[in-house]
Write the structure tokens for this entry.
Amino acid sequence: MKERYYISFNEGKDTLPKILQIFKEYGREKLLEGNYPSKIFFRHFYILATDPFLKILENVFKENNWELNKRLEREYSNKELMQCKLLALRLNIAPKGMGGPQSGTKFDISNACKICGTAALQISNLMLRPSDIPKNRDITQTYDFNILISKKLKEKFLKLNLKNVELIPVISSKDRKELGYYQILPKVNLPPFSESTKGIEIFNQCKICKRDGFYDSPEYPPELHYNNFDESFLNKANIFFTYEYFGNSELKEPFKHSILAVPKCIVSPKILELFSDLKIKGLHFEPVIVNGFPDLNKWKVNKNE
């Protein structure tokens, strides 16, 4: 496991030369290499969590009342990830297209929250504009975080004999024709996160259902925990949705203007193995802690450095 920080600051033209001098004094100018326009004072870089220069920089910024923004990131080896029982899947791919009610996708809200609409059930194909479909990419996502795969990748998925997941054709919102991509739609939700979960914040949550309003922390990577978890549940599917919905839902009239929060996609290592074999780019997997396993505190940090 590697841990690094994404660091950024924007202290203005009067302060920036002083900060750049600190990097020069410690021989760390390369951290800030990049082409920055002369009137842009924002700087950003990555640094290993074990790098002693990080502490030096934090102290200097604190002493001078300068603002240093810091976000921890983790990178895991496939060997580490394959040890896990479950993995959180995130796409590091720019989203395109709105896949919620505004696109014409149909939802059943009879069992959803009556106040915010969270947990509305999708009951039609995902509707998108043809221009929202990428070219020559096997996996992509919408702004509503619907995960879409190409026909070629769908055939690979079918060979895995996945349980309780649908691969639904994406339909054009203009002429109702299939667009050659398929939405991954899990049919099973996991139980709620355990209280030991880290890296998740709650904002403006619905006071009735308390299932929306979840967000990834801007400072700490998500560390999802399930304690007292019946592991036979894992036999129900290879791809799950979380019980929690990320973002804020809002029911509106007419319904097509409503905003619906979305759950995270949680997968078995079997899915990681498929993506790795096919060398699919733009994916990030994170361990989900099931009944205390794996213990990330025992994984050596930056062992490959």
